[in-house]
Amino acid sequence: MEKSGLKIDLHVHSQSSKRPSQWVLQKLNCPESFTNPFKLYEIAKARGMDYVTITDHNTLSGALEIAHLRDTFVSEEITTYFPEDHCKLHVLALNITEAQHEDIRRLRKNVYELAGYLNKTGIVHILAHPFYDMNHKLTIDYFEKLLLLFKNFELNGSRDDYQNQVLAAIINGITRHDIELLADKHNIPPYGKNPWQKNLTGGSDDHSSLNIARMHTWVPGAATLPEFFSGLETGRAEVEGSAATPKTLGHNLYGIAYQFYKSQFKLERYVHKDRLLRFVDCALTIPDETENKGILTRLQDFLISRRPSISFLHEQNPGLIDMIQKKGHSLLAKSSRMQWITKHPRDMKMDKEDDWFRFVNDISESLIHNVGDNIMENFSKARLFNIFQTIGAAGSVYSLLAPYFLAFRLFTKDRKFAEKCHAQCLGKAPGINPDNCRMAVFTDTLHETNGVAHTIRMMLEAAQKNNKSLSVLTCGPEQQLAGQVNFAPIGAYELPEYPQLKMYYPPILQMMDYCYQNNFTHIHCSTPGPVGLAGLAIAKILEIPFYGTYHTAFPQYVSEITGDEDLAEMMWKLMSWFYNQMDMVYVPSRETGKELIKKGIPESKICLYPRGIDIQRFHPAKRNGFWKSNYQLTDQELKLLYVGRISREKNLEILVQAFRQIEKQAPNVRLILVGDGPYRKEMQKELKGSRAMFTGELTGEALAQAYASSDVFVFPSSTDTFGNVVLEAQASGIPVIVTDQGGPRENLKAPQSGLIVPAGNARALSDAIIQLCSDPLQLDRMKAAARKYMENRSFDRAFLRTWDLYKKNTPTKNPIAKSNSFEQILDLAS
Question: I want to staple 18 with a disulfide (CB 3.0 to 4.6 A). Which of 22, 283, 489, 594 is the partner?
Answer without folding.
Answer: 22
